[in-house]
Amino acid sequence: MRRLWLIFAQAVTISVAALFVLNTLKPEWLRDAAPASVVAILQAPEENGGDTAAAPGSYASAAQRSMPAVVHVYTSKAVQNPRHPLLDDPIFRHFFGDRQGNGNNDSQRSAGLGSGVIVSPDGFILTNNHVIDAADEIEVALNDGRKFPARMVGKDPETDLAVLRIQTDAQLPAITFAGAEGLKVGDVVLAIGNPFGVGQTVTMGIVSALGRTHLGINTFENYIQTDAAINPGNSGGALVDARGNLVGINTAIYSRSGGSLGIGFAIPVSLARNVLEQIVTTGMVTRGWVGVEIQEITPDMAESFGLGSTEGALIAGVLRGSPAEKAGIKPGDVLVAVDEKTVADPKSMLELVAALPPGHSAHFRIRRQNNELDLQVEVGRRPPPQQLSNK
């Protein structure tokens, strides 16, 4: 028995030694004898330039494709220091003199940070309006560390979007836009930005909901809701799909602590593209306007007005000299359709009118005291938000 064991051990030793010699001196003999599938796996890294395939469930390729197009946006502005009340007291000024011109600095610099997305190789960058609002200096840092001063091309406070531009001779890595109708609830998305200024970060989640409105964030709302972690500094960054295509601009979070609670909101790419094209072309966003104050119809109001349903938008007020007044629209009317498109609620009415070009003669169908009337309204240009708030 011992002799058989010795013979077996010697045979194994000789076989191992022979394999070692062949692998060292003639490795092609072993490769030729191996199955074709094994040869393909062994040769794949060389044929692919040394890169290995992404592990199952990995989104590394999507991140690598989109990360170079996401930038850090640094802003600063002068902030006036609060003035001590005693400086305005006549008795104090009598004894201590007027200290307004004593050379003290009455202002200081306030810094902010956010993110942005390069949307064209020649330097156009899409970000949030609240990231750059009131800033007098804007600097953009690319993913590779290069920094450039940026100028604002235009902004749209009513969607919280703004367009910046940087000047460079080099071609910049621009992001690819996803299709407008391709996103679905449950799709995997990645949020890319600069949270808390720690540096570029990628977080993963899913699309929790689409078409979120009535949040009170902006005038025009149609948000993507996601549970991908979004924190301060992510604003203006990219929300991309599993292929690295841009599906939204990260904008806001719902939070009681200031950190991510898994409820984040992004502006969909369809809205962002429309605003981007208008700002790049004309420097501003043009929307239709008729000059009415609208109100949602509650069940109690529908009953008191003798309406059959709560659909439509109640005209609560009409601005003097506005297109609506010229067309004969009165307070108490219920708008039910614009150019044959049904008005479901005040939000849909606002969007339908905003989409109309100024100068267009729109067909408004209203309900007045149980009668339906058709009126032609010549659409005007929507004034800036500050003018609307002062009316």
What can you see in these coordinates?
Substrate binds at residues 130, 160, 233-235. Belongs to the peptidase S1C family. Residues 279-356 form the PDZ domain. Keywords: Hydrolase, Protease, Repeat, Serine protease, Signal. The termini are far apart. The chain is an alpha+beta fold. It is elongated. Strand 5 and strand 6 (161-166) form a beta hairpin. It folds into two domains: 59-81 and 112-285, Thrombin, subunit H (Beta Barrel); 288-390, Pdz3 Domain (Roll). Helix content is 26%, strand content 32%.
Short key terms for the protein model shown above:
single chain, 391 residues, alpha+beta, Thrombin, subunit H, Pdz3 Domain, 2 domains, 6-stranded antiparallel beta barrel, 11 helices, elongated, serine-type endopeptidase activity
Layout of SSEs?
Layout: H1 2-25, H2 27-33, H3 36-47, H4 60-66, E1 70-80, H5 90-96, E2 107-118, E3 124-128, H6 129-132, E4 137-141, E5 147-156, E6 161-166, E7 188-193, E8 201-212, E9 223-226, E10 238-241, E11 246-253, E12 264-268, H7 269-282, E13 288-289, E14 292-295, H8 299-304, E15 313-318, H9 323-327, E16 334-338, E17 341-342, H10 346-354, E18 361-368, E19 371-378, E20 380-381, H11 385-390
Antiparallel strand pairs: 1-2, 1-4, 2-3, 3-6, 4-5, 5-6, 7-8, 7-10, 8-9, 9-12, 10-11, 11-12, 13-20, 14-15, 15-16, 16-17, 16-18, 18-19
Helix pairs in contact: 1-2
